[in-house]
Amino acid sequence: MSEILIYQNESGEIKVDVRFEEKSIWLSQSQLCDVFGKSKATISEHISNIFDEGELDYISTVRKFRTVRIEGEREVAREIDFYNLDMIIAIGFRVKSPQGTKFRIWATKRLNDYITKGFVLNDERFKNGTNMSYFDELQKRLRDIRISERFFYQKIKDIYMTSIDYDPKNEKTIEFFKIVQNKLLWAISSQTAAELVHNRVDMSLPLMGMQSFDKTSKNIAKKDVSIAKNYLNKEEIKLLGLLVEQYLAFAETMASQRKPMRMNDWIERLDAILSINGRELLSHKGKIAHDMAVKKSEIEYEKYKQNLQEIEKQLSLKELEQDIKKLM
Known about the structure:
alpha+beta
């Protein structure tokens, strides 16, 4: 089923209903004319040349969609050729119009939203109340998150990715996720991520103090010892699971009420859920810097590796002694 998005340029002069299907954007020839500000003859010529030169092939770039048009006093349904984003970009390189470039940027952003979120939020139709399919998709997405096997605060990050203002490339988004992680870890352990690593890493302990690390794993990698969640104990993991489950239930409730959420809205609700459960809210950056925690974990890891090497050396010597005794 096609999703219809609305594109409107900055001046408001161009407004186009854009089809989104099969992970691509689709425009008809007349829409291409509107977007690039060129005549039908010019666009037709470019399309023909693109096919003739073998830059793109017809089968993968053209689809027929049934559209309803007003002809005189009648509504007539016809099948019309639509062209995907590959064709739009190819035409854009040949036409080189500023407004065409802006459309390609807009279209690419919508595809990026789909890739990162699993759906595209149609802001314009949502505001107009004409299309609520976004919330149906959001509810399905939230249910998938709830039953996934991803670690708990990874699920929280998945929720934030459904925010209507989510931008994975924005540095503030990366910093935002760090804040969320620290809020959750502080709520269950009274320590930030850096403090957990710095205070609990210890090469003399089993698995270097990592209580939730996979005990069946034969090798501990350097990156493992700098991950805070690996140091959570059984009770902390249980509490974290309960808090996250409440948060996921709340998220699904918001979706069922068709309420759009922004990243700041989500974090305010997280604070509210932590407070209701009697957990202390993190109001500072912690006493241990991230670099300090990483440095200590690396030092302890080197000690751990050296100790393993020494143990392996001793075992090898014992095996050698046993082999020599057998030969005597």
